[in-house]
Every structure is written in C-alpha cells, then in structure tokens.
Write a structure and sequence with these properties.
Layout lengths: L3 H9 L22 H13 L4 H15 L21 H12 L1
Helix pairs in contact: 2-3, 2-4
One iron/sulfur cluster binds next to helix 4.
C-alpha cells in the first residue's frame, strides 16, 4: 500500500470521474469488471486519501466477486459505450495502482 503522501500526489494528478452509475459500460467489458464501483472508489479516495484502507477493503470485496482492475485489457470497449465518455481504462490503471 502506498503512503498517504504518495496517494495524495497520485490522486491530485488524476481527475475525478463524473460517473452517473448508469452501468452501460459493464455489459461491454469482456472482463466483466465492476467498473462504476471502482470508479466510485477512486472518486472517494480523491476526496479523502485518509480513507484508503477502508476503500481498499471494499475494492477487494468487489474484486473477489468480479475481477481486479489489473484484469483490464485496455480494449476501450467500455469507453465506446460510456455516455459520459469517461477515460475508464485510465481509471482501471489507477485503481490497480492505488488498491493493489
Ligand atoms: S478497457 Fe478494461 S474495463 Fe474497459 S471494457 Fe476493456 S477490459 Fe473492460
Ligand atoms: S458507462 Fe460511464 S457513466 Fe455509466 S457507469 Fe460506466 S463509467 Fe459510469
């Protein structure tokens, strides 16, 4: 796990994701990743890096049932089906970095 200072720097360097939770992306992900759940965790971490341990616990619960952010193959299929045109593959890369 990264230090609080490292996490703070990482999260400040990355955008918040204005995900609506519509879940349109999920059915287009060959890895069946819980994309909006991971994106929501990242947004929470950006708001408060002191919550890192709690958020990592939640991440691992999602990952146990559905797959880890490191399983992302960067195929961009999700992004092509996101009404908000979010950079989901970047978000999965970041989630892997901060939660694994
Ligand atoms: S880029 Fe990653 S998260 Fe998006 S559809 Fe492909 S495998 Fe799934
Ligand atoms: S399609 Fe985009 S806005 Fe909808 S849940 Fe997925 S990431 Fe969020």
């Amino acid at each position: 796990m990264k230090s609080t200072a490292q996490l703070k720097a990482l999260m400040e360097a990355n955008p918040a994701y204005p995900c609506t939770g519509c879940r349109s992306c999920e059915s287009h992900c060959s890895q069946k990743l819980p994309i909006p759940d991971y994106v929501a965790l990242l947004n929470e971490l950006k708001e408060d890096v002191e919550k890192a341990e709690e958020l990592k616990g939640r991440y691992l619960q999602y990952a146990a049932g559905r797959g880890r952010a490191t399983d992302c193959m960067f195929c961009h299929s999700c992004e092509n089906n996101c009404p908000e045109q979010l950079g989901i593959s970047d978000a999965m890369f970041l989630a892997a970095k901060v939660f694994e």
